[in-house]
Design brief:
The protein is α/β, with parallel strands linked by helices and 95 residues long. The chain is elongated. It contains 4 helices and 3 strands; from the N terminus they run βαβααβα. The protein has one domain (2-93). It has helices spanning 13-33, 46-52, 57-64, 76-93, and strands at residues 2-5, 39-43, 67-71. The protein has a 3-stranded parallel beta sheet with strand order 1-2-3. Strand 1, helix 1 and strand 2 form a beta-alpha-beta unit.
């Protein structure tokens, strides 16, 4: 089971919540299926990777529930495309 977090750069409070929800969602799915699965959180950004491998309770939960945190190496073009999309999202949220 894989959940992907494509955000790059500084994490906003909603990003921390999304990462926690992803961990909970995959663990819940595993429990409902009642079959052990390999569980991955794939991230594109260094900040998210650092956070999920750090000292937060979410990092502890990921390790406790046997998640593997994997950083996806993306091309510079893909990185630029993600950063541009993030900027458009920020601009769209301004009133």
């Amino acid at each position: 089971m894989v959940e992907v977090f494509a955000g790059i750069g500084k994490l906003a409070p909603a990003h921390y919540e999304k990462l926690a929800n992803d961990i909970l969602k995959l663990k819940l799915a595993e429990n409902i299926l009642n079959v052990p699965h390999k569980k991955y959180i794939a991230v594109c950004g260094e900040e998210a990777e650092r956070y999920l491998l750090g000292n937060s309770w979410k990092a502890f939960a990921a390790k406790y529930y046997d998640f593997e945190i994997v950083r996806i190496n993306i091309s510079m073009d893909d990185r630029s495309m993600i950063l541009e999309a993030q900027e458009r999202q920020k601009a769209g949220m301004k009133l």
